Amino acid sequence: MMEGISLEKKEGYAILSVDIPQTRNALSVPIVEYMDTLVDSVIADKDIHCLVITGGGEKSFVAGADIAKLVKMSPEESRYSIEVGHKLFSKIETMDIPVVAAINGYCLGGGLEIAMCCDIRICSANARFGLPEINIGMIPGWGGTLRLPRLIGESRAKNMLLRGKMITSQEALDYGLVAEVYENVAVMREKAGELAVELASKAPITMKIDKRLVYDAANRQPTDIAQRDALALGFVYTTHDAIEGLTAFLEKRPPKYEGR
Question: CB 217: neighbour CB atoms within 10 A?
Protein backbone atom coordinates (compact mmCIF):
# COMPACT_ATOMS: atom_id res chain seq x y z
CA MET A 1 0.00 0.00 0.00
CA MET A 2 1.10 3.56 -0.72
CA GLU A 3 -0.83 6.59 0.49
CA GLY A 4 -2.52 8.43 -2.35
CA ILE A 5 -2.16 5.63 -4.92
CA SER A 6 -5.11 3.30 -5.24
CA LEU A 7 -6.55 0.62 -7.48
CA GLU A 8 -10.33 0.24 -7.30
CA LYS A 9 -11.98 -2.73 -8.94
CA LYS A 10 -15.37 -2.29 -10.56
CA GLU A 11 -17.53 -4.68 -12.54
CA GLY A 12 -15.26 -5.61 -15.44
CA TYR A 13 -12.79 -2.75 -15.09
CA ALA A 14 -10.49 -1.01 -12.62
CA ILE A 15 -9.54 2.57 -11.76
CA LEU A 16 -5.93 3.47 -10.97
CA SER A 17 -5.86 6.82 -9.18
CA VAL A 18 -3.09 9.20 -8.10
CA ASP A 19 -4.39 11.43 -5.31
CA ILE A 20 -1.62 13.45 -3.64
CA PRO A 21 -2.98 17.02 -3.55
CA GLN A 22 0.05 18.58 -1.83
CA THR A 23 2.15 17.87 -4.96
CA ARG A 24 -0.67 18.12 -7.51
CA ASN A 25 -0.35 14.36 -7.97
CA ALA A 26 3.28 14.61 -9.08
CA LEU A 27 5.17 11.39 -9.79
CA SER A 28 8.24 10.22 -7.91
CA VAL A 29 10.31 7.08 -8.41
CA PRO A 30 8.62 5.20 -5.50
CA ILE A 31 5.19 6.17 -6.86
CA VAL A 32 6.08 4.96 -10.37
CA GLU A 33 7.45 1.71 -8.94
CA TYR A 34 4.28 1.14 -6.92
CA MET A 35 2.06 1.96 -9.90
CA ASP A 36 4.03 -0.65 -11.84
CA THR A 37 3.11 -3.32 -9.28
CA LEU A 38 -0.56 -2.29 -9.49
CA VAL A 39 -0.50 -2.52 -13.27
CA ASP A 40 1.01 -6.00 -12.94
CA SER A 41 -1.91 -6.97 -10.71
CA VAL A 42 -4.34 -5.68 -13.34
CA ILE A 43 -2.60 -7.69 -16.06
CA ALA A 44 -2.82 -10.83 -13.91
CA ASP A 45 -6.53 -10.36 -13.13
CA LYS A 46 -8.55 -11.93 -15.92
CA ASP A 47 -11.75 -10.30 -14.62
CA ILE A 48 -10.46 -6.82 -15.47
CA HIS A 49 -11.10 -5.93 -19.12
CA CYS A 50 -10.35 -2.20 -19.04
CA LEU A 51 -8.19 0.14 -16.96
CA VAL A 52 -8.94 3.80 -16.22
CA ILE A 53 -6.08 6.03 -15.04
CA THR A 54 -7.01 9.32 -13.36
CA GLY A 55 -5.98 11.87 -10.75
CA GLY A 56 -7.72 12.71 -7.50
CA GLY A 57 -9.57 15.98 -7.03
CA GLU A 58 -10.55 18.43 -9.74
CA LYS A 59 -7.41 20.48 -10.38
CA SER A 60 -4.77 18.00 -11.44
CA PHE A 61 -4.50 14.70 -13.32
CA VAL A 62 -0.73 14.42 -12.86
CA ALA A 63 1.33 17.61 -12.81
CA GLY A 64 4.62 16.06 -13.86
CA ALA A 65 7.46 14.84 -11.67
CA ASP A 66 8.22 15.97 -8.12
CA ILE A 67 10.75 18.76 -8.75
CA ALA A 68 11.83 18.93 -5.10
CA LYS A 69 13.11 15.37 -5.53
CA LEU A 70 14.51 15.92 -9.02
CA VAL A 71 16.90 18.66 -7.95
CA LYS A 72 18.60 16.31 -5.45
CA MET A 73 19.12 13.44 -7.90
CA SER A 74 22.53 12.31 -9.07
CA PRO A 75 23.00 11.48 -12.77
CA GLU A 76 22.81 7.78 -11.92
CA GLU A 77 19.60 8.28 -9.94
CA SER A 78 18.11 10.25 -12.82
CA ARG A 79 19.03 7.46 -15.21
CA TYR A 80 17.24 4.95 -12.99
CA SER A 81 14.17 7.21 -12.79
CA ILE A 82 13.99 7.24 -16.58
CA GLU A 83 14.26 3.47 -16.78
CA VAL A 84 11.48 2.80 -14.25
CA GLY A 85 9.24 5.34 -15.97
CA HIS A 86 9.78 3.80 -19.39
CA LYS A 87 9.13 0.35 -17.93
CA LEU A 88 5.75 1.42 -16.53
CA PHE A 89 4.68 3.51 -19.51
CA SER A 90 5.57 0.87 -22.08
CA LYS A 91 3.73 -1.72 -19.99
CA ILE A 92 0.61 0.46 -20.00
CA GLU A 93 0.91 1.08 -23.74
CA THR A 94 1.22 -2.62 -24.58
CA MET A 95 -1.42 -4.06 -22.24
CA ASP A 96 -3.87 -6.44 -23.89
CA ILE A 97 -6.81 -4.53 -22.42
CA PRO A 98 -7.79 -0.95 -23.32
CA VAL A 99 -6.55 1.85 -21.08
CA VAL A 100 -8.43 5.14 -20.66
CA ALA A 101 -6.87 8.35 -19.35
CA ALA A 102 -9.57 10.35 -17.52
CA ILE A 103 -7.87 13.74 -17.32
CA ASN A 104 -8.97 16.24 -14.69
CA GLY A 105 -7.11 19.55 -14.66
CA TYR A 106 -3.36 19.89 -15.18
CA CYS A 107 -1.77 17.16 -17.31
CA LEU A 108 1.87 18.22 -17.49
CA GLY A 109 5.27 16.62 -17.99
CA GLY A 110 5.12 13.04 -16.79
CA GLY A 111 1.36 13.39 -16.53
CA LEU A 112 1.03 14.02 -20.25
CA GLU A 113 3.59 11.30 -20.94
CA ILE A 114 1.56 8.70 -19.04
CA ALA A 115 -1.69 9.93 -20.63
CA MET A 116 -0.17 9.50 -24.09
CA CYS A 117 0.48 5.82 -23.30
CA CYS A 118 -3.24 5.26 -22.87
CA ASP A 119 -5.45 4.15 -25.74
CA ILE A 120 -8.17 6.77 -25.30
CA ARG A 121 -7.90 10.14 -23.56
CA ILE A 122 -10.90 12.10 -22.33
CA CYS A 123 -10.80 15.23 -20.22
CA SER A 124 -12.76 17.89 -18.37
CA ALA A 125 -12.96 21.43 -19.76
CA ASN A 126 -10.50 22.72 -17.15
CA ALA A 127 -7.74 20.38 -18.36
CA ARG A 128 -4.43 21.89 -19.48
CA PHE A 129 -1.72 19.96 -21.32
CA GLY A 130 1.99 20.54 -21.74
CA LEU A 131 5.57 19.31 -21.63
CA PRO A 132 7.11 22.34 -19.87
CA GLU A 133 10.46 20.75 -19.00
CA ILE A 134 12.41 23.26 -21.09
CA ASN A 135 11.33 25.97 -18.64
CA ILE A 136 13.44 24.32 -15.94
CA GLY A 137 16.32 23.26 -18.17
CA MET A 138 15.16 19.65 -18.47
CA ILE A 139 13.80 17.30 -21.14
CA PRO A 140 10.72 15.03 -21.21
CA GLY A 141 12.49 11.80 -20.33
CA TRP A 142 9.59 9.35 -20.36
CA GLY A 143 8.96 9.18 -24.10
CA GLY A 144 7.27 12.55 -24.60
CA THR A 145 9.47 13.53 -27.53
CA LEU A 146 8.36 10.38 -29.36
CA ARG A 147 4.69 10.10 -28.48
CA LEU A 148 3.63 13.75 -28.77
CA PRO A 149 4.69 14.15 -32.43
CA ARG A 150 3.03 10.83 -33.23
CA LEU A 151 -0.25 12.03 -31.79
CA ILE A 152 -0.43 15.69 -32.89
CA GLY A 153 2.24 16.08 -35.58
CA GLU A 154 5.81 17.35 -35.49
CA SER A 155 5.07 21.06 -35.93
CA ARG A 156 2.54 21.28 -33.11
CA ALA A 157 4.68 19.06 -30.89
CA LYS A 158 7.74 21.29 -31.37
CA ASN A 159 5.65 24.37 -30.63
CA MET A 160 4.74 22.84 -27.28
CA LEU A 161 8.12 21.29 -26.49
CA LEU A 162 10.44 24.14 -27.45
CA ARG A 163 8.31 26.83 -25.83
CA GLY A 164 7.10 24.87 -22.82
CA LYS A 165 3.65 25.85 -24.04
CA MET A 166 0.46 24.65 -22.37
CA ILE A 167 -2.66 24.07 -24.45
CA THR A 168 -6.32 24.10 -23.44
CA SER A 169 -8.76 21.22 -23.51
CA GLN A 170 -10.30 22.61 -26.71
CA GLU A 171 -6.90 22.83 -28.39
CA ALA A 172 -6.15 19.27 -27.25
CA LEU A 173 -9.42 18.17 -28.87
CA ASP A 174 -8.65 20.08 -32.06
CA TYR A 175 -5.15 18.54 -32.18
CA GLY A 176 -6.50 15.02 -31.70
CA LEU A 177 -4.72 14.62 -28.38
CA VAL A 178 -8.00 13.84 -26.61
CA ALA A 179 -11.14 12.16 -27.94
CA GLU A 180 -13.76 13.94 -25.82
CA VAL A 181 -14.06 17.04 -23.61
CA TYR A 182 -16.73 17.25 -20.89
CA GLU A 183 -18.02 20.34 -19.12
CA ASN A 184 -16.72 19.45 -15.67
CA VAL A 185 -14.82 16.78 -13.76
CA ALA A 186 -17.92 15.09 -12.34
CA VAL A 187 -19.40 14.53 -15.80
CA MET A 188 -16.02 13.41 -17.14
CA ARG A 189 -15.69 10.80 -14.40
CA GLU A 190 -19.18 9.51 -15.12
CA LYS A 191 -18.40 9.26 -18.83
CA ALA A 192 -15.09 7.52 -18.07
CA GLY A 193 -17.01 4.83 -16.20
CA GLU A 194 -19.44 4.43 -19.07
CA LEU A 195 -16.60 4.21 -21.56
CA ALA A 196 -14.83 1.60 -19.43
CA VAL A 197 -17.98 -0.53 -19.28
CA GLU A 198 -18.36 -0.25 -23.07
CA LEU A 199 -14.75 -1.20 -23.74
CA ALA A 200 -14.87 -4.05 -21.23
CA SER A 201 -17.78 -5.53 -23.15
CA LYS A 202 -15.82 -5.88 -26.40
CA ALA A 203 -14.20 -9.10 -27.63
CA PRO A 204 -10.94 -9.44 -25.63
CA ILE A 205 -8.94 -11.26 -28.30
CA THR A 206 -9.96 -8.82 -31.01
CA MET A 207 -9.17 -5.93 -28.68
CA LYS A 208 -5.71 -7.34 -28.07
CA ILE A 209 -5.04 -7.82 -31.79
CA ASP A 210 -6.35 -4.36 -32.73
CA LYS A 211 -4.10 -2.74 -30.15
CA ARG A 212 -1.07 -4.73 -31.28
CA LEU A 213 -1.64 -3.86 -34.95
CA VAL A 214 -1.83 -0.15 -34.18
CA TYR A 215 1.22 -0.30 -31.92
CA ASP A 216 3.35 -2.25 -34.39
CA ALA A 217 2.43 0.10 -37.24
CA ALA A 218 4.63 2.86 -35.83
CA ASN A 219 8.14 3.22 -37.23
CA ARG A 220 9.78 3.04 -33.82
CA GLN A 221 8.82 1.53 -30.52
CA PRO A 222 8.97 3.48 -27.23
CA THR A 223 11.26 0.82 -25.75
CA ASP A 224 13.83 1.69 -28.44
CA ILE A 225 14.38 5.13 -26.96
CA ALA A 226 14.53 4.32 -23.24
CA GLN A 227 18.33 4.23 -23.16
CA ARG A 228 18.57 7.31 -25.39
CA ASP A 229 16.37 9.29 -23.01
CA ALA A 230 18.22 7.97 -19.97
CA LEU A 231 21.63 8.91 -21.38
CA ALA A 232 20.41 12.33 -22.49
CA LEU A 233 18.87 13.16 -19.14
CA GLY A 234 21.88 11.80 -17.27
CA PHE A 235 24.00 14.29 -19.21
CA VAL A 236 21.55 17.15 -18.68
CA TYR A 237 21.78 16.59 -14.93
CA THR A 238 25.50 17.40 -15.10
CA THR A 239 24.90 20.89 -16.53
CA HIS A 240 24.83 24.14 -14.60
CA ASP A 241 21.67 25.25 -16.39
CA ALA A 242 19.65 22.20 -15.28
CA ILE A 243 20.46 22.79 -11.61
CA GLU A 244 19.76 26.49 -12.08
CA GLY A 245 16.38 25.77 -13.68
CA LEU A 246 15.32 23.38 -10.92
CA THR A 247 16.60 25.64 -8.14
CA ALA A 248 14.96 28.74 -9.60
CA PHE A 249 11.64 26.93 -9.76
CA LEU A 250 11.84 25.96 -6.09
CA GLU A 251 12.92 29.51 -5.14
CA LYS A 252 10.10 31.00 -7.27
CA ARG A 253 12.40 33.24 -9.33
CA PRO A 254 13.27 33.48 -13.04
CA PRO A 255 16.17 31.20 -13.99
CA LYS A 256 19.47 32.66 -15.22
CA TYR A 257 20.87 30.27 -17.80
CA GLU A 258 24.52 30.40 -18.83
CA GLY A 259 24.65 27.75 -21.53
CA ARG A 260 26.87 25.44 -19.54
Answer: 7
Q: What pLDDT digit, counting tens, does each position of 25-51 carry?
A: 988 899 999 999 999 999 999 999 999
Q: Is 190 a residue of the active site? A: no
Around Cβ 10, how many Cβ atoms within 10 Å?
Answer: 14
Provide the whole-model pTM.
Answer: 0.88
Domains of the chain: 5-185 (3.90.226.10)
Measured distance CA(26)–CA(45) in Å, rounded: 27
Q: Indicate the length of the chain as a whole number.
A: 260
From the list 3, 113, 154, 244, the catalytic residue is: 113
User: Residue type at 237?
Assistant: Y
The residue from 11, 77, 133, 171 that is catalytic is 133
Active site residue 113: yes
Rg of the chain, C-alpha, whole Å: 18
